[in-house]
Specification:
The structure is a homodimer of 295-residue chains. Helix content of chain A is 37%, strand content 19%. In chain A, β10, α8 and β11 form a beta-alpha-beta unit.
Chain lengths: 295, 295
């Protein structure tokens, strides 16, 4: 029995950056909040609370405190309100998410009917939508496209979507549109995680996907992995059950872009324990066979 | 045994317009030439020669005569040369072809690497290419795409291509490109002819596609029809053989956008003759069951 990890797993650039910004701010200020969880990982959010960085869900709960804008960004109007209320803002929006907002705004200014490939209830998409002039159409996949013809249609994506869904959406729009502009805003960290998860899932008898149950990119990894092999999506090692590994030879691990290393290590060590070994426990993700962070 | 015609068949707007321009010019001027065949139908080109409108293949053969620009357009440089030589020019380029040239030029000016979906040896594509700054990539289908990644890629089509080929091309480009702009320049006359050919082919035991062997849109109709049923591509009624109709019940006819009505009528009457009937002969395409010109 062996355990390997997808070569690109865990924290991406935008998440690392947001956590760094938050921790640096914690040292500098008294009373800091994030408007919504800074990343979609409850364990990390709880750890930040230990450092005095609390997540509030509504602007009304900010109560004058310095406010960190979460990695997923925030609605244009909300940012305006915070400015109007003279709230000190620290912006930890992922630069790739900010760029997607810029693209959305520009497409709508250029007269394109904007279509967002994404989850309409996800904070990244809610924020993105606010930057678009006029009504954006939001679809989770090509099947959700409204029965319309388009003159000029502009497509952008939530940064954590799957390229296949974008391909299907664009293919369906070609005969319905006179002009299509597609900005592929799926971020590289998403793509490489999806690709390496696919590669590992194909070679494994069981996949364990680690990350927030509210994490869009982690859910997408689980969805992709399920196409190839039995897959469990867990947040922590406590969810692991011995019986999962009966008759299993090759175990694959992968972790979403908002999953901290310490959780991955805990999961690995728990699996090793389930396998009856204690000596092989590790202290760093770098010690799990297969791991290689993207450049 | 019955014979029906695809509801959109024969001359399109651009071809009708080009022939009208040529015939009007024939009355007005002495010594008129077209630079290349005005449309891709040898029989029609021969009929125009009877009216004193001759097709020459090279600028050198114009010999100072008034020159009609063919429906497929001409290279930018060639137009410039004719102007420099003070040749009187009558432009019969299809307006949809001209629009495609404008789109190609604009895409290249906007910094897009232009990809043309088309036949690199077709005069429409040769002309279109000349309006694009820098090197355009020309592919007949997605399989011909070079193994490259693109920053900004702009796609336009020869007006007579198939929407499925455009869909496949765009789908293949999505993961290879940061930004894609697709201008669907497949003209409506092409689309409706392809759709009604598909519909009729599905209901027929045999399809006869009428039009120039050098006609891109006619060849495409034959290719589409072949996916469903035995298909013959002919230029005139003289090619028809009695044995084609043995054991055949439902015969479908369709004609390319450059096929004149009189040829369609001759073909229909020849089929009726092969079927052993003489009384059912017709004088107009409107008398063939199924025909309905697009608006």
């Amino acid at each position: 029995m062996s355990v390997r990890i997808a070569k690109n797993s865990g924290f991406c650039f935008g998440v690392k950056r947001a956590i760094k910004i938050a921790l640096e701010a914690a040292g500098d200020h008294d009373g800091i909040v994030t408007l919504g969880p800074i990343i979609h990982n409850p364990q990390m959010v709880s750890k930040l609370a230990d450092e005095g960085i609390f997540s509030v869900n509504k602007s009304e709960d900010i109560d004058g405190r310095t406010t960190i804008i979460r990695s997923h960004g925030v609605k244009k109007e909300t940012l305006q309100e915070l400015n109007n209320d003279n709230i000190k803002i620290i912006n930890a929006t992922c630069p790739y998410v900010s760029k997607t907002q810029d693209h959305g705004q520009k497409l709508s200014e250029e007269g394109y009917q904007v279509i967002i490939l994404g989850d309409k209830d996800h904070p990244e998409v809610e924020a993105l939508k606010s930057y678009i002039q006029g009504d954006a159409v939001i679809v989770a996949n090509a099947d959700e496209l409204p029965d319309l013809k388009f003159n000029k249609v502009g497509i952008i994506c939530q940064t954590t979507r799957n390229i296949k869904d974008l391909q299907e959406l664009v293919q369906k729009l070609v005969p319905l549109s006179r002009e299509i502009k597609v900005i592929n805003t799926i971020c590289n960290a998403t793509s490489v995680r999806q690709e390496s998860t696919t590669a590992l899932a194909k070679e494994s008898d069981l996949m364990i996907v680690i990350g927030g149950k509210n994490s869009s990119n982690t859910k997408m990894l689980a969805k992709i992995s399920e196409n190839f092999v039995k897959t469990y999506h867990i947040e922590t090692s406590y969810e692991i059950e011995d019986k999962w590994f009966e008759g299993i030879d090759e175990i694959g691990l992968t972790a979403g872009a908002s999953t901290p290393d310490w959780i991955i290590v805990e999961v690995y060590n728990k699996i090793i324990e389930c396998m009856g070994s204690i000596e092989d426990k590790i202290e760093s993700v770098d010690d799990i066979p297969g791991f290689k962070e993207e450049k």
